[in-house]
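Quick one:
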Amino acid sequence: MAEHSKALEFYQKAVEIQEESLPSNHAHLTFTYNNIGSLYASMEDYPKALHFYQKVQETQQKSLPQDHPYMAVTYSNIALVYESMGEYSTALKFHHQALTIREKSLPLNLTDLAATYSNIARAHDEIKEYSDALQFYEKTLEIYQKTLPPNDPELAGAYNSIAVLYVHLERHSKALEFYHKTLEIEQQYLPLNHSALASTTCCIGMIHKKMGEYSKAFEFCERAVEIGEHSLSEDDCYLAFYRKQFDTIQKKLESA
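Output:
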């Protein structure tokens, strides 16, 4: 935090000089406003971050075409601040402005496009618009499948996000499909007893439980407990949750 304060002091002095000596649409002003906005965002002072990102936007609108890629970056920054403030509908408005530019920019920057789709999906997810979120996570996944190695952690993350949405939509078979895709990749890059494997394994078990497939649920929840006991502390809340799920399923099987 002390480093942030020093950097902020430096940039504030710089911007005072620049505002007195440079035209209001000068690129150096945009750069400094953006850095100040980023600093405030990292300090979680979102109103001030928003103020300076909006100054970036105002400056760029005087000097750049409306569809310039730099404008997309600024719209994304503003959207992410609104997300951090819990204002998801406003965030979506700015994410879509960024998307409009990025979908028209040639050559397409697939990395930026995937990030924008993912940002839009996450915002829809936060306000429980699960079908809309799924649509944009699928667009993200389509790019990842074309551009990333088949065992890339980001690909696993996309599969996991889609699986969670299918759970919300109560499409259990599809949720299982995507959790298994997640697990398949995680097993390639994580240690065998990593806590993330316990989480994914437990999620698979819980879906089998919802589907009334208690033998399969038992198998996966037992494995989640085993992994959790090797990767988590004895008083960890996740380990307690895995054990609770396992006990519930075991009792179901015993009473059958």
